[in-house]
Structure formats: C-alpha cells, structure tokens
Amino acid sequence: MTTTQTWTTAPLPAPRPGNRSATAGFVLGLLGLVVGWLPVAGLLVTVPALLLSRAGRKHFRAGQVAIAGRSGAGLVLGIIGTAICVVMSVVVISGGASAAPRTAAPAPAARSCCPCRTSSG
Q1: Which of 17, 35, 81, 94 could form a disulfide with 46 if both were Cys (CB 3.0 to 4.6 A apart)?
Q2: Residue 89 within any structural domain of the chain
Q3: Is 62 inside a domain boundary?
Q4: Averaged over 31-48, what is the pLDDT?
C-alpha cells in the first residue's frame, strides 16, 4: 500500500521595510572617513552621506521605519568626514599660499677636463 503525502508550502514572510537611504548614508559615511582625507574630493562623498542619513532620519520620525540606528550613525560619520575634509582643504590651501616661491638653483661651475690644470693663474 502506498500513501500519498500532501505537501503544503508556508506563505513567505512579508519583507521587512528597510531604510535604504539610511543604509546608503551609513555606507557613504564610512567611505567618507577614508576619502575625507583628500582635500576637496572628500566632500563628494561626505555631503551625500549627510543628506541621505538625514532623509533616513525623516523616515524614522514619520514612523515608516522602526529603528533609527543607521541614520544616526551615518549622520555622525558624515559630520566627522566633512570636518576632516574641510580641515585638510584649509591646510592644503593655506600651505600652498604661504609657501615661498622656488627659485632656480645656480648652475655648477664648469670643470676643467684635465684635473692637473687649474683655472687660477
């Protein structure tokens, strides 16, 4: 005798709503800590980190997301990365402005082809 077994599939759980802007802001904030040491290029990463993290914070305050962790961390990392970038930009700009202009070094005196002869007479 054979019995047939019926297979039932459980419904898939509903996807949890994520805060994509907070996640993107957090990742850009981490990247901003590395790229922030480059004087002006760091702002291309840290400013979007601030903006995306702030948008993630707005989603949290509107009740669309339950946890605000990544948006807060992204804001902190974005602020630190921006501060590093601004300080490095000021250092590079002020260092370049206060540097003394370089002058060409004088050419060395011509040497005689014969070491026994001297040019003093």
Answers
A1: 81
A2: yes
A3: yes
A4: 90
